[in-house]
Sequence to fold (132 residues):
Amino acid sequence: MYKFFAVAALLFLTGCTTTNGPQSQCVGAMTTQEAYGHLDPNRFTIQVLALSEERDVRGYIRDIKGQDPIWVNWKRSLGNRWYAVIYGDFATKAEAKSVIDTLPARIRQQGPFVRSFAEVQQDKQTNVFRMR
Fold:
């Protein structure tokens, strides 16, 4: 709970920035609906990894190059907080799978997999932080 308030305070102090592009979106904390509700449920993304330690997330995100969006979903499950990194917005499942092959080996070792935005939109028990 403390970390959530720390992130909220940081956003309040720094303000919310928006991404450039056809679908300008707030970069910061938001609900699942705010983060993914406008995205086509027939498109795909990659769940890069899920970690229990927030401090490890930034290290992995730094290794993901390019301009595709990155979201971190966090939720509490079985008494632990989990941080899932979601990457990109792809037209087809095959396109998303081919991007997995281009990720750094360190990230591929974590077992990234393709998810549809329909699946991501159904996960209502998360808070989301858009990183870029």
